[in-house]
Amino acid sequence: MTGTPLQDCCATVSGGLDESQAAQLASVFKVLADPARLRLFSLVASAESGEACACDLVEPLGRSQPTVSHHLSALVDAGLLTREKRGRWAWYRVVPEQLAALQAALAP
Questions:
Q1: What is the four-CA torsion angle of 66, 40, 29, 103, rounded to 10 degrees?
Q2: Cα separations (Å) of 26 from 39, 72, 80, 95?
Q3: How confident is the model at residue 103 (pLDDT cuts 50, 70, 90)?
Q4: What pLDDT score does 36 carry?
Q5: SS3 annotation, 23-59
Q6: 105: closest CA among 28, 11, 12?
Q7: Which of 6, 61, 75, 79 maximizes the CB count within 10 A of its CB?
Q8: How far is CA 74 from CA 34, 50, 85, 96, 98, in A?
Q9: Domain boundaries, the chain
Q10: Is the CB of residue 24 less than 8 Å from the CB of residue 66?
Q11: How far from 76 is each of 30, 44, 71, 95, 103, CA to CA, in Å?
């Protein structure tokens, strides 16, 4: 053993998120803490075309269209998804920078 026990176990910790970054990520994770929203985010993120129509998200989620729209709006408000109206339907895409930030926060 080198040094004193205190020196061996008490290494300086640095890096990680600052307070502002932690607060911002916490608000995003709060939105994603709802299972329906997490599933919707996952469905949009895994769409082959890179986008998903709201009409295609109702059946996989097993919820009513108004409920799905409510959850999608929360994801848009949190900056996780973008919405583009095309005719009577809305199309959703993941915001790449937000996905990268989530991945970075969860990476070892």
A1: -160
A2: 18, 19, 13, 17
A3: confident
A4: 97
A5: HHHHHHHHHHCCHHHHHHHHHHHCCCCCCEEHHHCHH
A6: 28
A7: 75
A8: 10, 19, 16, 17, 14
A9: 28-106
A10: no
A11: 14, 12, 9, 9, 18
For residue 57, the one-letter residue type is L
For the chain, the C-alpha Rg in angstroms (whole number) is 19
- Predicted confidence at residue 32, as pLDDT, reads 95
Written as one string, the DSSP assignment of 75-96 is HHHTTSEEEEEETTEEEEEE-H
In the β-sheet with 52-53, what is the strand arrangement from edge to edge? 52-53, 89-94, 81-86
**E strand or H helix that includes residue 7:** helix 5-9
Kindly report the pTM of this predicted structure: 0.81
Q: Does the pLDDT at position 16 exceed 90?
A: no
Q: Which fold has domain 28-106?
A: Arc Repressor Mutant, subunit A (1.10.10)
